[in-house]
Hints:
Helices cover about 0% and strands about 40% of the residues. It has strands spanning about 5-10, 30-40, 45-55, 65, 80-85, 90-95, 100-105, 105-110, 120-125.
Amino acid sequence: MLRQTGVLVSVPAGARGATPRPASAETAAITTATVQGELDDDVNFGGSYLTITNANFCDGSTVYQIGNLATLGFNDKTSSFIGYANCTMKIWENAGFTGASLGYVASSANVGPAMNDRASSVQLR
């Protein structure tokens, strides 16, 4: 799990792992992060998960990426994924966006046998 102080996370409806609370005077000067997507280690968005955040919503053309999921402890674990904040996602078999891939799609409740537990990098747009 990555921890950072001074960041307010914008949690879309349906996102797991955070409890939304109203903004206050305390949070007014805090940088905002948006949940862009989630990788899940079980089908149907179950099990442990990796939440992907960024300062922006997706616009369909700007690509946000994580080139090596091993650095976040989530290599070869993805069985399902879901995009938030207008994001579609693409998972790749190898680090550095090579090998087999699935996407760009808004979500996949089951990545199928060809990609199950094989994702090593991810792109969102």
